[in-house]
């Protein structure tokens, strides 16, 4: 396997963003004239892997002065050729250059990991996708006898989102929050739709799935992730964050110039609490789509995409999203938290994949990610 590692100063710039990004101010400066469009940047990439690496690097250097995002790391692959690149800075105050092995909060990319574990347990006969929440978490939800694990995995449970603003007040984070406390916020709330009918992306679905995994295995969800995914795949830089302990070498995250690194999102748990690197995430998805983690039947269920257009995606399966590129459909997931944007996409039939982790606000980083994704997958 050929691997390249490089740290390149500068950032990609664009003024657009994927739908569903978290808060933050719009850019005050119009940079559309200096930032190439995703289509133009991808078109500049040739047919070889080296050409695509060069296109990403060239775009980063060309936009180094735009300052739309502080920095990013990129892991891309084409069959047995791989490269991990770093651009910009991981710490604005110190001016620390981003490194290829810097760690990020990966936000909702965590959901693909949680879904994989649930489907492994299905494969082992320890639970069923059509089991109800009530079966494994009796009394936790008023509507628990109507909502199945399949509904949770596909975001069609009908549950409203929990109001997590009570956990973050200004620059203070409430500690000691449990999954049970989080779920109680919606336990008696009316459903937004009948289970199975309406796709509405909700973090609460995967918080509940984490609780189900713990009920089935008798272990903490972090330990289950470590034993089933992180250790077997050699993901040494990946962990489920615990209170006050997200892990070492974590990049600082920003909304504009505001440092939001103080935000402790350990309570996102199975819905978004993992921290990792671009390389580790590339390894995880490569193992998933190659059949190393799930049998054919379970992987087919996971990748059976429901046609819904939400959060910048073109559909959703079971813990996996689909996005349209200039050269076809890519599968994976994206994530947003205040001050960061993460995406991981694969085209298994083409043998190509890309992971992009940005330590800047998601609404400003969307165009940056578009450029990288198109160059990596479609060059």
**Count of helix runs:** 12
Give the radius of gyration.
20 Å
Q: Which range best describes the helical content: under 10%, 10-25%, 25-40%, 40-55%, 55-70% or over 70%?
A: 25-40%
Low-pLDDT ranges: 1-45
- What's the β-strand tally? 16
| Oligomer description | single chain
Return the average pLDDT rounded to an integer.
85
Strand content: 15-25%
Please state the structural category. Answer: alpha+beta
Assign an overall shape.
Answer: globular
Distance between the termini: 20 Å
- What characterizes the major β-sheet? 9 strands, mixed
Write the layout of secondary structure elements.
Blueprint: E1 2-8, H1 38-44, H2 49-62, E2 71-78, E3 81-91, E4 96-97, E5 104-105, H3 110-123, H4 133-136, H5 149-153, E6 168-169, E7 172-173, H6 179-184, H7 203-217, H8 221-230, E8 239-240, E9 254-255, E10 258-259, H9 269-272, E11 274-276, H10 278-289, H11 296-302, E12 315-316, E13 321-325, E14 328-337, E15 340-347, E16 352-358, H12 362-378
Parallel strand pairs: 1-3
Antiparallel strand pairs: 2-3, 2-16, 3-4, 5-11, 6-7, 8-11, 9-10, 12-13, 13-14, 14-15, 15-16
Helix pairs in contact: 1-12, 2-12, 3-7
Protein name: Class A beta-lactamase-related serine hydrolase
Domain Beta-lactamase-related: 66-366
InterPro entries: Beta-lactam-related, Beta-lactam/transpept-like, Diverse_Enzym_Activities
């Amino acid at each position: 396997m050929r691997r390249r590692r490089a740290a390149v100063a500068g950032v990609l710039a664009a003024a657009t963003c994927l739908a569903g990004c978290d808060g933050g101010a719009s850019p005050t400066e119009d940079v559309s004239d200096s930032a190439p469009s995703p289509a133009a940047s991808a078109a500049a990439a040739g047919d070889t892997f080296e050409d695509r690496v060069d296109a990403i690097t060239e775009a980063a250097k060309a936009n180094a002065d735009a300052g739309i995002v502080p920095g990013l790391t990129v892991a891309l692959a084409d069959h047995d050729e791989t490269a991990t690149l770093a651009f910009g800075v991981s710490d604005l105050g110190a001016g620390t250059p981003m490194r290829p092995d810097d760690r990020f909060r990966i936000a909702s990319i965590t959901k693909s990991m949680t879904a994989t574990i649930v489907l492994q347990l299905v494969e082992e006969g320890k639970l069923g996708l059509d089991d109800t929440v009530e079966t494994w978490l009796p009394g936790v939800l008023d509507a628990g006898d109507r909502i199945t694990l399949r509904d949770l995995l596909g975001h069609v449970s009908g549950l409203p989102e929990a109001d997590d603003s009570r956990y973050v007040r200004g620059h203070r984070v409430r500690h000691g929050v449990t999954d049970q406390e989080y779920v109680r916020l919606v336990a008696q709330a009316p459903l937004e739709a009948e289970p199975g009918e309406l796709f509405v992306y909700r973090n609460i679905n995967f918080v509940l799935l984490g609780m189900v995994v713990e009920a089935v295995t008798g272990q903490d969800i972090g330990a289950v992730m470590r034993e089933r995914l992180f250790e077997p795949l050699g993901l040494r830089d990946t962990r489920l964050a615990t209170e006050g302990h997200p892990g070492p070498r974590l990049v600082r995250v920003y909304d504009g110039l505001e440092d939001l690194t103080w935000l402790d999102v350990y309570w996102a748990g199975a819905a978004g609490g993992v921290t990792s690197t671009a390389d580790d995430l590339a390894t995880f998805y490569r193992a998933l789509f190659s059949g190393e983690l799930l049998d054919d039947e379970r992987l087919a269920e996971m990748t059976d995409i429901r046609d819904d257009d939400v959060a910048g995606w073109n559909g959703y399966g079971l813990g996996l999203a689909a996005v349209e590129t200039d050269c076809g459909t890519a599968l994976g997931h994206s994530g947003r938290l205040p001050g960061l944007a993460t995406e991981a996409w694969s085209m298994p039939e083409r043998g190509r994949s890309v992971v992009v982790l940005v330590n800047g606000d998601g609404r400003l980083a969307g165009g940056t990610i578009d450029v990288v994704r198109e160059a990596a997958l479609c060059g």
